[in-house]
Amino acid sequence: MSFTLAIVGRPNVGKSTLFNRLVGRRLALVDDQPGVTRDLREGEAKIADLRFTVIDTAGLEDATDDSLQGRMRRLTERAVEMADACLFVIDARVGVTAVDEIFAEILRRKSATVILAANKCEGRAAEAGLLEAYALGLGEPVRLSAEHGEGMMDLYTLLKPMV
Ligand code: GDP
Ligand code: MG
């Protein structure tokens, strides 16, 4: 069975942009099962010679504020259960938010194997957020710019021993 990486984190940090970059055209399937499963997109990821399955926790964008927190939690828990490791993405331009802390808590409680990623790291606007990311206690964040394709080799180095 193939190694599965779940991309988790609050809306708007760049999860789907990263998913699309990793998957390219190799979007394997969109699950049509009922419930939260339909909000998990699965694809075949490729970085250099690495191949693995990647899951995007989509379907949060259209939730109302009221339903968002419970939905994020259920969806994230489901993704964590399906995955061998989680890529927990924060927005380095915004820094660590209260909602990011909720995700960190879910991952800790689930004893997930976590790779912390600070996205939107292109340019200098990311430096303060990057420092905050260390305070999450999830180790050194890998610096990514999903939009510009930066940090993919660092992600490769982290994933290579796991895949
Ligand atoms: P998701 O809600 O976590 O799936 O986030 P999306 O992938 O939909 O991205 C949210 C917004 O962030 C979009 O406007 C993206 O274009 C933007 N974005 C994603 N990655 C980057 C990045 O590396 N740098 C910058 N500056 N913006 C990004
Ligand atoms: Mg998305």
From TrEMBL:
EngA-type G domain residues: 3-163
Binding site for GTP 1: 9-16, 56-60, 119-122
Function: GTPase that plays an essential role in the late steps of ribosome biogenesis.
Quaternary assembly: Associates with the 50S ribosomal subunit.
Membership in a protein family: Belongs to the TRAFAC class TrmE-Era-EngA-EngB-Septin-like GTPase superfamily. EngA (Der) GTPase family.
Protein name (Swiss-Prot/TrEMBL): GTPase Der
Originating organism: Palleronia marisminoris
Gene name, Swiss-Prot/TrEMBL: der
Segment of the intact protein contained: 1 to 163 of 480
